[in-house]
């Protein structure tokens, strides 16, 4: 795959001719398939990806080039910066969900399940887009390092940040128990809403 750090990049070593005494020697240095990306370059590319993930969270995905984002993520992993990418994405998701958690926690009891379910569905969609950008990382770095796939990691962060939030957990538990009791008593309950919420907790 030809990328910004392919063999044509300026800075790769080329064969050099040197003189030793009166005899000319042509010194051929070992072939290098690509120039190594340094930490500064990696950080710059990560910041571009971080900005794109924020745009996805803000529902501006149509403004992005997913092909370019995939290529940037690919290059980071290819040049041994998979840890920077993985940790960065996890932190970015956590940061976003901290704001969502505050909104959900502020919902009144009668709106909590609906608000939580809406946030869950939205998060699943955004994580699918993030996963598409990071497919190469999931296939290589995640597998080699035995990490949790980025989509699954995002769902776990949602559960820990929101469903287990101090101002959500017990209220959610009470609402679910009330719904079960109401259904057993023959009352109508929003089954789909309950099902989505239980799926999130699984």
Question: Any descriptors?
Answer:
202 residues; mainly alpha
Describe the structure.
With 202 residues, the chain is mainly α. It is built from 8 helices and 2 strands; from the N terminus they run ββαααααααα. It has a two-stranded antiparallel sheet with strand order 1-2. α3 packs parallel to α6. The longest helix is centred in the middle third of the chain and has 25 residues. The N terminus is likely disordered.
What is the element string, with H for helices and E for strands? EEHHHHHHHH
Strand order of the largest sheet: 1-2
The outline comes out as: elongated
Taking the sheet with the most strands, its summary is: 2 strands, antiparallel
Number of strands: 2
Average pLDDT for all residues: 86
From the alpha-carbon coordinates, what is the Rg to the nearest angstrom? 25 Å
Q: Which residues sit in consecutive blocks of at least 5 with pLDDT less than 50?
A: 1-20, 26-33
- What separation lies between the terminal Cα atoms? 39 Å
Helix/strand/pairing class, anyone? mainly alpha
In terms of DSSP E residues, the strand content is under 5%
Number of helices: 8
Q: Tell me roughly what share of residues is in helical segments.
A: 55-70%
């Amino acid at each position: 795959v030809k990328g910004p750090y392919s063999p044509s990049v300026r800075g790769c070593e080329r064969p050099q001719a040197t003189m030793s005494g009166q005899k000319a020697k042509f010194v051929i240095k070992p072939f290098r398939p690509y120039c190594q990306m340094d930490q500064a370059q990696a950080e710059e590319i990560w910041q571009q990806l971080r900005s794109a993930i924020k745009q996805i969270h803000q529902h501006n995905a149509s403004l992005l080039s997913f092909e370019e984002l995939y290529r940037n993520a690919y290059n980071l992993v290819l040049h041994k910066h998979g840890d920077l990418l993985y940790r960065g994405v996890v932190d970015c998701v956590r940061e976003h969900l901290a704001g969502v958690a505050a909104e959900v926690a502020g919902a009144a009891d009668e709106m909590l399940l609906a608000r939580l379910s809406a946030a869950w569905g939205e998060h699943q969609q955004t994580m699918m887009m993030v996963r598409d950008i990071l497919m190469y990382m999931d296939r290589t770095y995640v597998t080699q390092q035995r990490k949790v796939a980025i989509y699954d990691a995002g769902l776990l962060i949602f559960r820990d940040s929101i469903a287990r939030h101090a101002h959500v957990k017990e209220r959610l538990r009470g609402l679910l128990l009330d719904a079960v009791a109401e259904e057993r008593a023959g009352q109508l309950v929003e089954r789909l809403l309950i099902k989505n919420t239980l799926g999130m907790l699984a």
